[in-house]
Amino acid sequence: MSETIFHYNKDLPQGCGYAIALGRFVWCAYKPKASTNIDKGSEKRGLRVGGVEVLLYFCELIILTEGRIMARKVFISFLGATNYGACHYCIGEFDSGEVRFIQEATLDYLCQSSTWTKKDVAYILMTEDSWKKNWLADGQHNFKTKRIIRQPGLNKCLRSRRYPMTLKPVTGLPDGNTEAEVMTIFQRVFELLKKGDELYFDITHGFRYLPMLIVVLGNYSKFLKNVKVKMISYGNYEGRDRKTNHARIMDLTVLSTLQDWANAAGSFIRSGDSSYLAQLAKDKLLPIVQDDNRPDVQSARTLNNLVKNIEKMTTDMITCRGRNIENSMNIKGVKRHLNGLEDVVIKPMKPIIDRVKDEFADFNDSPDVMNGFRAVQWCISHGLLQQAVTILRESVVSYFYDKYKTYITCEKLSDRRDIVSTALNIIAYNTPESDWRIFPELKPQLKAVVQAFRSERRSYMFTNSIGKREHISVAYDKLGSLRNDLNHNGMNDGPRSPELIKEETLKYFDRIYNCLIAKSRR
């Protein structure tokens, strides 16, 4: 039973293990018992005997709820060896009172602003020197007289406050004077973290490179352990008001958030994957969007809507939803929200948004069959070759249907597109009318489209790789072979190599697109 519990807890997405355990609990309690009246096909429902089994599944529910739904809060702070002066640390309405150690002030603030329990933990990291001088009592000496300064250490100060979380000193860190020691510190801190932790970093004291270490550690842990950086704080003792002896606790979490947005935008621009942006919007923007009293609520809502439309649009291209692409259903929303995003939640995000904006600059926000070809270009640049080939072939049909639609009067979309596709194949192979394959009732329309094609044949010619002039219909036909190779998983005679697939996709796109663009400019 325990193996099953931990298997669920480790491998399933958040919430799935809980749902499965709940289902199993209900199934266990109310599973139908086989009836003796099998010949009538009836069953009797009732509690399954095995109350112990019911109890075990109930315990599984509790474990999964604790382990998956309630993330562990983790406070991490480095303790230095300096004899710190006392002051009032303040953030918002919070005033710590006079304290020597920033850890006291920050933990007081965190316990007031959020709920911490015994399963949460506060790690205080220190070297041998800082352990002697500041963790233990009476560790400092007067600089002039060399006498011991009688004062409590951080250990006593924290224990006296009876915090709800578990306090864990981490001793014996190296001094960090070499690259190897820095990496040892990095690894020691990383090993303290568990999957899904919510991290609260205090970077006030310790090593000068600590801010850099924490930023890198945060990103490293987000990737490997799916942690969330909830706060990065700094007690600005040196910048305190000398008259009132009040120092600010600066919340620097925005720097981690900005890096998250940069990473998400970078992932989208490189691969076309908008899921990171969507998840970030859910985590970072939803709390702002739901608070009408926040001054940045409107810009947060615009950014949130922008991300939603980006996700919808990229999904259209990934799933080859040609109608949505050509009718600009979601690009319209993307461009509207991009243009309406004058202010952003975090000012340095503006260049990031502008870079994302470049991704959609070529698309028309009004219905336009050429958006299909722009989608092909987007798919190619993001390595989505199968989507590119599929959309390209269908976009050729859309282009010529839009051009010759006056000749096509049938109602069904599939018939209208079949007429154009068949006409292209007829032109490519100069197929005699006796060999045309189409429903008899559609043949007059097909004949009209073929005649229109032939009358403009020279308008849609290009020069191939061996210097021969070819009609666009030939490229369209060859594109069908490439699409079949891709969609049949290469399980066919003479499958192309991955390199050839990429080469042909680029070749046919360039020939078709340039041919159509050249035609539109004449």
In short:
By secondary structure, the protein is an alpha/beta fold. The chain has helices at residues 2-11, 16-30, 51-69, 102-113, 128-135, 154-160, 179-192, 210-225, 253-271, 275-289, 297-318, 322-326, 331-340, 350-358, 370-381, 385-404, 413-429, 443-455, 472-487, 498-521; strands at residues 73-79, 87-91, 94-99, 121-127, 166-173, 198-202, 228-235, 246-251, 461-463, 469-471.
Task: Give structural notes.
With about 525 residues, the protein is α/β, with parallel strands linked by helices. The protein folds into 4 domains: about 1-70, no CATH class; about 75-250, 3-Layer(aba) Sandwich (Rossmann fold), CATH 3.40.50.10640; about 270-360, no CATH class; about 380-520, no CATH class. It is built from 20 helices and 10 strands. The protein has helices at about 1-10, 15-30, 50-70, 100-115, 130-135, 155-160, 180-190, 210-225, 255-270, 275-290, 295-320, 320-325, 330-340, 350-360, 370-380, 385-405, 415-430, 445-455, 470-485, 500-520; strands at about 75-80, 85-90, 95-100, 120-125, 165-175, 200, 230-235, 245-250, 460-465, 470. The strands form 2 sheets. Strands 3-2-8-7-6-1-4-5 form an 8-stranded mixed β-sheet, sandwiched between helices. It has a two-stranded antiparallel ribbon with strand order 9-10. A hairpin with a 2-residue loop joins strand 2 and strand 3. Mean pLDDT is about 85; it is low at about 1-20, about 30-50 and about 60-70.
